[in-house]
Specification:
heterodimer; A: alpha+beta; eight-stranded antiparallel beta sheet; 26 strands; B: 753 residues; alpha+beta; Beta-Lactamase; Alpha-Beta Plaits; 4 domains; eight-stranded mixed beta barrel; five-stranded antiparallel beta sheet
């Protein structure tokens, strides 16, 4: 049996002075396993993340096509009854060369952390209510610093409503972060995990969340690395994520014309996706652009389908980027995430990286991204997954993002 | 580009808020979207000193005492536990006592953001009025106790509100679609008037130039009634002055009472004018009109601010001096047309156009004249293209034209010809008439030009080639031009060291007395033996040396070595040999040049009369007065002066007469023509006669055939040089060519030596 393992556990010995005292109250560990046996993979990754310690929270990311029950059994066997949340992702991020499929487990613990988890089911029938529901846990935290970590179903649509709901309850003092579960671009099924002392359940159309309290700051950073190109357009007819018209013309025609391709290209889903991933739309916003991935085009109606809503009347740009621009987001998101840690080195990081970036970057680019993150994070371990939508809010009220990299840094 | 992100937020906002039919959800959604759009953390709606909806404090509600200072205009509010926040408040309408408040931790709010929030508040106000009216109507319907008339009135109100919302949306969409600002402003007055029972409506703007109030749009022609107009203007002015809604009632003419209402209009948050309505007092429903007028004034504000935005957009893509698209837009269009061309299997042609002697105009007549020239030239370009071609100013005196769906270079040549014809008309600058020419490079897609950058670069290279041949010409790009240009770019750094590393060589082209056949002189020609590229042609490296300034060192090297060689030959074997050396514009411009020549003559022992300095006609005629000044000290040394490439510049006869020149060297292009055309020989004859009149000798350049020699003899030309007599000779070959007694080449009257 082949086994590839890596373990990154930050001991409380690095740093100096009060940093050491602080980190003694909090620890963050990650483990990764590519073992083909899901149970073994779960066990191994969790054992490495915990390194014999008692976890306050276990976070599991894994591919969408493994035996979840077996994998989670393995995790639970190591984690005991520790609160658990998790979901499926397109691919996974942790120290070491990116290898798929793999199970990535992160765990945090110590007296300095305070954890409350919750789950909302049948989310698509009420995204906002689901967001409100899981955010209620935040109110029970007593720690000085707080974060609401959200893992949603990437296929539910209107996730911005979910974030609005969470914000309406959590308020401006609690940062939001997280990602939308993915299924390897099949757009069929994504899965969310929720576990406690009574066992672990596998859900679909669910929102799992952890309200994390800490006696040290928690920072959230987000960056996209895209730039506007050409002249702006107005979404003259749109509903939800479907854009029917841009500047009064069929949206697909405008898009194809701008790129110099024939509209019939939309008939080949795969080829069209390869193209649209590199040319998303950017909505004009105060803080810059809000990116929308186009994931399909209807040749008959001439419409474009985006993963998230494009409001009618919105001003849009075609966006472009390159490998370096996308990789630079690691620097930018990291800088923003650690900026609010009061100069303290993070004990660990969670990463939520857009799945479309994964395709755009390609295998070499993904390896570069991981190595950049390793350079930035230094000794601090990190774990994450490639998502179908990222959540980050620390300033303002808007928290749903696309084609971004979100980093959460725990001091 | 600094784009007004806020303008289009209002359209999105409008769509979102007015789509709700539940008052509570509409208010909550309105607060959330306002907070999101403005990057704020906290938002609330206050009604009658009570917070009716809020977001940002979780389930807690901020206290009205903490928030309400924002309504009074306080820039900061203190809201525990968030602390001090930047704040902004706006009324939903003028009656209900409802306000929309947003606040954020970072960054104070800009004027643009204030205007956006005001727009949002009015939109919410209108949406709520509509919802409430609907609610009342529904309630009454269930009670079935309503008097028919009263019910009709309510339904009418409801219908009016709905029309109001629809009108506002129409205007919003016009703004989103970037309709011309006048169209949008007309839509504002046209849409509002029916909702004010058909009352006269005018949009009055204060001119930033003279401060006068002017009607820029109205629902009907401005009344002829002077008093009526006076009431409109007075009310408008008052609304601007106090920046608030104003009502005035006046007695006009035959005691008819008129009532006017004016609501201020803002551009980027600053009061800029007002929306005014006027009607007979009996007809005016002042209470009802206030909200409508204020709402439409907000729309006008957004439209006017957006007009500024469009202006800013235009600036970002348009050259302000000529009104042509700029480089950014040109490249964008070129990219798109290349993509279309590849789909439809057609080609794209680019013309790169550079004004000839623009710097001279700018330097001698000033930048104002330069700007005028650019504007005039842009008009000539516009005249030369079709409607769907793109002409652009790339920067400086560089322009470009993009032609789509071309086959080959013929379309490009046709445009270049049209431009050339358009330039035949002189440009009048004050009392001067200037004849302007331009060098044009033409490149067509396909082959090695796959990208916009490559295509433009090819056209640029061809233009540069055209310029080098003297300007005023159009050349089609050919791949070898690129190779040569690349060579030039790579050679630049090497050229700096060519002289010091001993890589320069001189060759000598004999100059023959056309009548005696005697070789009398040589012209020193510089060669560059590059260590890796071998021999580099002077037409490649001399222009490069002129551009980067190395020509001064090279010129000095040629002078010193040429004079030394000539002095040696005179001493040893060719006692009467004279030498001609080319002098560049930079060398001549240097006031110490005469000292250098003097020093070289004494160093080498060459008599001054044996040295001829060749200066091109265009250098001499660039600034003839200054040229005269610079030449005088040279002539004082006793050296001879030749005007090189005569015929390619624009000599003024008056200056030519004053120039103390000894020789006119007739350019090869004229010599080439003497065999084939009557005009060709006529020109040379005229030049020869002119030279004789001015007491100068003539030297014909580039003689390649015996026939040319015979004709030039007949035209009384004095001297000649060219391959017909000898190719340039290496140093070692010169004594042999001249021979101990001096070489004679006899062809006169058909005699051959």
């Amino acid at each position: 049996m082949s086994m590839s393992l890596s373990s990154d556990v930050l001991k409380s010995t690095h740093g100096g002075g009060s940093q050491t005292l602080d980190t003694e109250r909090r620890w963050f560990g990650t483990g990764r396993s590519t073992d083909p046996d899901p149970r073994t993979a779960g066990t191994q990754a969790t054992r490495d993340a915990l390194a014999g310690r008692r976890a306050s929270l276990v976070v599991v990311f894994c591919p969408p096509d493994i035996d979840f029950e077996a994998m989670l059994d393995g995790v639970a066997a190591e984690a005991g009854g520790a609160p658990l949340i998790g979901c499926t992702g397109i691919a996974h991020l942790s120290k070491g060369a990116p290898v798929e499929p793999c199970v990535v487990v992160s765990a945090l613990g110590g007296d300095g952390f305070e954890i409350k988890t919750s789950v909302a089911l049948n989310v698509s029938s009420g995204q906002r209510a689901a967001g409100e529901h899981v955010a209620e846990m935040v109110e029970t935290l007593t720690s000085e610093h707080k974060l609401l970590l959200l893992l949603a179903d990437g296929l539910g649509g209107e996730q911005h409503e979910l974030v609005r709901g969470a914000y309406s309850v959590a308020g401006a003092t609690v940062p939001l972060a997280g990602g939308c579960a993915a299924d390897d671009f099949r757009w069929e099924n994504t899965f969310q995990f929720f576990g406690d002392a009574n066992g672990v359940q596998v859900h679909q159309d669910a929102l799992v969340a952890a309200a994390i309290g800490s006696d040290a700051p928690i920072g959230v950073g987000v960056a996209h690395g895209w730039q506007k190109t050409g002249e702006p357009m107005v979404a003259t007819k749109s509903a939800g994520g479907r854009v029917d018209e841009l500047d009064g013309e069929p949206a697909l025609d405008v898009f194809a014309d701008r790129l110099g391709v024939d509209r019939s290209m939309a008939e080949d889903e795969h080829a069209f996706m390869q193209l649209t991933l590199k040319h998303p739309l950017g909505l004009s916003r105060r803080s810059g652009e809000d990116i929308r991935v186009i994931h399909g085009g209807n040749v008959e109606s001439g419409s474009l389908q985006c993963i998230a809503d494009v409001p009618q009347g919105a001003l849009l740009w075609m966006m472009q980027s390159d490998q370096e621009g996308l990789l630079r987001t690691v620097d930018d998101a990291y800088a923003e995430a650690v900026a609010s840690l009061d100069g303290v080195q993070p004990v660990g990081l969670l990463a939520f990286d857009c799945g479309a970036r994964y395709l755009f970057l390609g295998p070499d680019g993904v390896a570069d991204e991981v190595s950049r993150l390793v350079d930035k994070a230094g000794d601090a371990p990190f774990a994450g997954f490639y998502t179908m939508g990222e959540i980050a809010r620390s300033r303002g009220a808007q928290g749903m993002h696309h084609l971004t990299l979100v980093l959460v840094a725990f001091a | 580009m600094d784009y007004h992100w806020s303008i289009h937020q209002l359209t999105e906002y409008f769509e979102a808020v007015t789509s709700q039919d539940n008052e509570w959800i509409a208010i909550r959604g309105a607060v959330e979207r306002a907070v999101e759009a403005l990057g704020a953390e906290l938002g609330a709606v206050i009604r009658d000193d009570e917070v009716v909806a809020s977001v940002g404090l979780g389930r807690a509600t901020p206290s009205v005492t903490a928030i309400s200072p924002a309504v009074q205009g306080a820039p900061m509010i203190d809201v525990p536990p968030l602390g001090l926040l930047h704040a902004l408040g706006a009324a939903l309408d003028d009656e209900s006592g409802e306000y929309l408040v947003v606040s954020r931790i970072e960054d104070e709010f800009s004027g643009e953001e204030r205007q956006l929030l005001q727009g949002m508040a009015r939109v919410l106000g209108l949406a709520l009025r509509s919802l409430r009216t609907l609610q009342i109507e529904r309630t009454l319907r269930t009670e079935r106790e309503l008097e028919a008339a009263e019910r009709l009135r309510l339904l009418d109100t409801l219908g009016r509100r709905q029309r109001l919302l629809e009108s506002v949306l129409t205007i919003q969409r016009a703004i989103s679609h970037r309709a011309p600002s006048q169209t949008i402003l007309d839509a504002v007055t046209a849409s509002a008037s029916p909702l004010l029972d058909g009352a006269f409506l005018a949009l009055v703007i204060v001119s930033p130039v003279d401060g006068q109030h002017r009607v820029v749009s109205s629902s009907a022609p401005v009344s002829d009634d002077a008093d009526h107009t006076a009431l409109v203007m007075a009310t408008a002015a008052e609304a601007v002055a106090i920046n608030d809604l104003v009502t005035r009632t006046d007695v006009v003419g035959s005691a008819l009472h008129y009532t006017a209402l004016a609501a201020p209009v803002h551009i980027e948050g600053q009061t800029a004018g007002s929306l005014v309505t006027v009607a007979k007092s009996d007809d005016a429903d002042v209470d009802d009109w206030r909200a409508t007028l204020t709402a439409f004034a907000e729309q006008a504000s957004v439209a006017l601010t957006d007009a500024r935005t469009v202006e800013a957009m235009r600036d970002a893509y348009q050259d302000p001096l000529t009104g042509l698209p700029n480089r950014a837009l040109f490249m964008d269009r070129l990219n798109h047309s290349l993509q279309r061309a590849s789909r439809h299997d057609t080609h794209v042609t680019v013309l790169f156009i550079d004004l000839d002697r623009f710097k001279d105009v700018n330097d001698s007549l000033g930048h104002g004249a330069g700007d005028e020239l650019l504007g005039w030239f842009a008009s000539r370009i516009r005249e030369s293209v079709r409607g769907d071609d793109t002409a652009a100013r790339l920067g400086g005196d560089e322009f470009a034209i993009l032609l789509e769906q071309t086959i080959g270079d013929s379309a490009g040549r046709a445009v270049a010809n049209r431009l050339s014809r358009a330039l035949r008309e002189p440009l009048r600058l004050g009392d001067r008439e200037l004849f302007i020419s331009a060098s044009v490079g033409i490149a067509t897609s396909g082959g090695c030009a796959a990208t916009a950058d490559e295509l433009l670069r090819n056209a640029d290279i061809a233009m540069y080639r055209a310029k080098r041949t003297g300007g005023g010409d159009a050349l089609v790009y050919e791949p070898h031009m690129h190779t040569e240009t690349i060579d030039g770019l790579e050679l630049g750094p090497d050229l700096y060291h060519a002289a010091s590393r001993g890589e320069l060589r001189l060759e000598y082209q004999p100059i023959i007395n056309l009548h005696s056949g005697e070789a009398v002189a040589v012209e020193a020609l510089v060669r560059w033996q590059h260590p890796t590229r071998g021999l580099i042609r002077p037409d490649i490296f001399i222009p490069l040396a002129e551009r980067n300034g190395v020509i001064t060192e090279i010129g000095e090297w040629v002078l010193r070595h040429g004079c030394a060689a000539a002095a040696g030959w005179r001493r040893n074997s060719i006692p009467n040999l004279c030498i001609s050396v080319n002098v560049s514009a930079r060398q001549l411009d240097n006031p110490a040049f005469a000292d250098l020549v003097s020093a070289v003559l004494s160093e080498t022992g060459l008599p001054a009369c044996a040295l001829t300095l060749e200066i091109t006609e265009s250098v001499l005629m660039r600034d003839p007065e200054r040229a005269l000044e610079l030449i005088r000290p040279l002539k004082a040394l006793g050296v001879r002066l030749a005007i090189d490439d005569f015929g390619t510049g624009f000599s003024s006869l008056a200056y030519l007469q004053r120039l103390p020149a000894d020789q006119l060297k007739i350019d090869k292009v004229f010599i080439d023509a003497i065999e084939t055309s009557v005009e060709g020989s006529a020109i040379v004859r005229t030049v020869a006669e002119l030279a004789r009149t001015l007491n100068m000798q003539t030297v014909a350049e580039g003689i390649e055939t015996r026939q040319q020699h015979i004709i030039l003899q007949a035209l009384s030309c004095d001297f000649g040089q060219g391959y017909h007599f000898a190719r340039p000779l290496k140093t070692s070959a010169v004594p042999g060519f001249f021979g101990s007694a001096g070489r004679r080449i006899g062809v006169a009257s058909g005699r051959s030596a």
